[in-house]
Write a structure and sequence with these properties.
The chain has 343 residues and is α/β, with parallel strands linked by helices. The chain has helices at 3-20, 44-56, 64-73, 91-104, 114-118, 127-135, 159-180, 197-205, 239-246; strands spanning 23-29, 31-32, 41-42, 60-61, 81-87, 109-112, 139-142, 187-189, 209-211, 218-219, 230-231, 253-257, 262-263, 269-274, 285-288, 292-293, 295-300, 303-307, 315-324, 332-341.
Length: 343
Amino acid sequence: MTFKKMFHVVFAVLLGLSLRAHGAVILQYHHVSESLPAVTSVSSETFTEHMQYLKDNNFNVIPLDELITSLQTGQPLTDKTVAITFDDGYKNNYEEAAPILEKFGYPYTIFVNPELIDEGKSYVMTWQQLKELSKKGALISNHTQIHNYLHRKQPGESEEAWLARTKKDILSAQQRIKEEIGHDYKYLAYPYGEFNNSLQQLVKSLGFVGIGQHSGAVGIHSDFTRLPRFPASGFYSKLETLATKLDSQAFTIKQLTYSDSVTDENPPSLTMQFDMQDFHKSQFACYVSGIGQADLTWLSKDTVKITSPEKLKKGRSRFNCTAPSIAKKGSYYWFSQPWVIVP
């Protein structure tokens, strides 16, 4: 082997190791049940298959706080690192999911709505059940008081009034969790996965990490007011597609520009500037949910404008962007931009 060829081989290996050292995937679940809405549920059998896949393929399943702290401080993570999360604190998490997770020895996080627990809603866990799970290693964190759309203003509400009300919601939920469980992890899972610029700024000012429901891997360059998670329930529970997502990587995005995630701009667009050392521009592609391939306009060698070819439906939509890794064959970079189109 010539020196030049050897140099390229060594460079590719080192590049692959460096790119994989600071990334991870967060999984999101809701129900583990066969009797509740299929769109947000997985059966116990399917959930077990997911956990068995993680074990059989040597994934490094770690607590969410360890994952986030490592990314924020630039500390390397083991390849194939995953965190498991649940939204809403449903009783079936206690009855069905927790015993399976305990069997595998996997840590996990549950995002809860304290006011719904205090009201004794029959479909959510009690504080006592959450305490029991926390003693076994589960992290209990903030999903707001009652699962309202945080970014929405009430009729006639000013920006200042909205800000005060939303701040109180987040902090009072955090206080109840601290009182009952003792946990004070400043992680906020946005209800319905929806957030706008103002909400992101508020979350950052409060010292919280904001976590969505849009797909994608996380890395040291991720925006910690909008961390993605891969939904793993319903249609997204198919193991053959979930396996690809579990092995995905986070794009290194130097700059992300768009008007707002909640917008009346339709069709919306965004511009992304990348560090492109590990993927080819020709293999970068974006898709619009319910529509198909997005229009791409390369503004420079590392900057692309992404636009939907037609108007999006009102409500939630996404742009999903991927590109295959050069250094790690079979692994894809993955980014998702969530939209809420309003009238």
